[in-house]
Amino acid sequence: MKPELITIKEASEWISLTLNRKVTTANISYLVNYGRIEKFGNNGDAFVCKEELINYYKDYLGSRQSNWKEKLGDDIDWHLSFEQYKESETTKHVHRLHPYKGKFIPQLVEYFLDEHTDEFKKDVYFHKGDIVLDPFCGSGTSLVQANELGMNALGIDVSAFNSLISNVKIAHYDLSDLNLELKKITEKLRQFILDSKTVKFEQCLLEKLSVFNNEFFPSPGYKWQLRNKEIFENIYGKAKEKEFLSIYKKLVTEFGIELKQENAESFLDKWYLKHVRTEIDFAFELIKKIKNPNTKRIATIILSRTIRSCRATTHSDLATLLEPISTTYYCSKHGKICKPLFSIMSWWERYAKDTLKRLVEFNSLRTGTYHHCFTGDSRTIDLFSSTEKINPEFSKQLKKQKISGIFSSPPYVGLIDYHEQHAYAYDLFGFERRDELEIGRLFSGQGREAKESYVSGIAAVLNNCKKYLQDEYNVFLVANDKYNLYPTIAEKAGMRIVQQFKRPVLNRTEKDKGAYSESIFLLKDK
To answer: What is the pTM of this model?
Structure first.
């Protein structure tokens, strides 16, 4: 039987109605480009098969829930997967001002902070005007969502850079001044690299890559062949990588390109090609001259986001950073020969525009409540005196009203190095690193002593924070407690776990895409 073919636009409309969920043309194009479904017709006249499309989504959506429940247990609360939201919604407005490994999605925070109830959440825990605390503030998701919901919020984080990210997200800006300063930097950066041989080299390299990839890695045909095992990726990819490498080396010699810096002592020395480092330093010097403090801070975050994307590594190793790379390589993520970055220009322009857009979006939602993230140790910080130093008026409210509760995601045992993930920013901006104060630090591992130290650390945080909580407080802690440490933590903090929600985590940035869950523990006073 001849397959029923429809255009990508028709496919988007039809599958959205069939599944009763939004599926965009970009979603369909992704499936085609990555070989999940076959493309029919030419590039200018592309079609997909209706039967193949519906079979893909039925298998993907139906089997995932049943497979994950089989692996994680029937007690998993699938409604807390928030699978109905697109990525643009789970990274809405200022939540994507800067990458941060290990953050939770805003919908999870909103679910427990807002005043709705349902068959799973039967009580209201927070109200407008309340004060919420996040003692492991990270990138400030709890603060931003509390703002949207008309709640005040305080955060604490041992990392100076994390505090900067959080405070930048909830700050107020003169958007006209910001737009003007960003345009100045963009224009000066453009003039700085105008006659650069590196820029001309990269333009020539891109032309040759385009011709080579179109011939040997045609899209989506190549990825379709991979999925059907018509090509062995490791053998074919390595062979073509070697073939193009000779072209690359000739261009490097022809243009006289210096790839690596003279030494590799610091992160910036090791992980950035020479010309990229030169541009970074040039842009940072311009940012230092900005007079408006808030404009300067947000410009700093834009530069940090930019240089994170410009590290000399492969696309598949962005989260792990195995070894610096200064040559072209076969990229398994994109299914073609890719190259390292030789200029920050395109990323700076993209993130400058994106940041302005996200700040405008958040401005339309934000409320007139107070928010701040302190740089400090949550085990010992005095919130009353710390707040009084920066906002005496809110300090009076805090002392009188006290904090209604906590919503936070503590670090896990020996999983993430929260300072090292932003090593480039600490290097460039000169922030003091306080790695030794991290609870559950990666360096300490996951052995018995590390677990005991972790339990003591989290309990110490809760005991310190209790001094600022109302009598009838609610504490929500999000954790993957595979070592069953939280009952002991609650006991040491003089609390009790009254409820546990278990949710599947569907959209993870790490390479491990397998079944994974985390628990949301609700703790109350004993």
So the answer is: 0.88
